[in-house]
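Can you give me the bound-state structure? Components:
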Amino acid sequence: MNILVINGSARAEGTTTALARSFMEGAQSRGAAADMIMLRDKNIGYCTNCLTCYAYEGEGVAPCSLKDDMDAVIAAMVQADGICFASPVHCGFVTALMTNFMDRLAWRAMRPAPPLGNCFNLESRVSDKVRALGSIATAGGMPLSLRRLCDEGTRWLKSNAPLELHGQWIGDMYAAADLERLPESERDWKRLYFLRKLSAPQFEEARQLGVRMVEALEAGNLKPDTLENSIPRGLRGIMKWYFTWKPLFHLAR
Ligand SMILES: Cc1cc2nc3c(=O)[nH]c(=O)nc-3n(C[C@H](O)[C@H](O)[C@H](O)COP(=O)(O)O)c2cc1C
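Here's the bound-state model for the whole set.
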């Protein structure tokens, strides 16, 4: 079993990497192989919106007009059974390294699908298996109780990655600021990020996320978080009925 971390931190040895390593240890403790890709070390250009990938009608990962490290990273993701996205919170979101990466992944791994009723639909191009997915977000100032105000990135990853990678979201963590001491002066407040340290419970939470990902894969009953699966069964029935009869309502008017 292969577990992969996609790390969007700008720092090789920052808090995100430290927690990602704990996550990997958790996965390895359950017999999985774990690897980490540092996006900062890869040559990944900006998407040019040429739509080469979007227009691709063949099977498998769509081609890209840019020739860089993205091919190798996607190949590693396709091969992986579980993937964890790790990123610091920058200005309330994931880092630019991560958003650029997700831009480049989007239509290479996903395509428009036959509509759900009359509704927009998407499907993964790499649906050979259901991947287990999760994320780690690290923050400098916002405590866990205010995560909602600061961590839009996790929500965004959770809604995009499963569609692209044919995955089920297993879990995520947010490592809020834990300070080595309370700030005592105005200068301390101004330099709050430098007082930050990771706590033992945060390392343990990351480790447990790794364990949980492997256990979910071993259980063998993952279900992809497709758009269709995200609509409750009853509502799906109503949508189908509505869109079947809608043309008749129009004729009757
Ligand atoms: C440009 C920038 C923007 C940041 N924005 C936020 C933010 O909006 N909320 C927050 O809690 N921390 C913010 N931080 C702090 C980082 O999230 C925090 O230091 C993180 O742990 C860094 O991860 P790293 O050690 O892997 O680099 C920001 C840091 C930088 C450099």
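A couple of observations. The first helix runs from residue 15 to 29. Residues 9-11, 14-16, 88-92, 138-142, 150, 193 surround flavin mononucleotide (CB under 6 Å).
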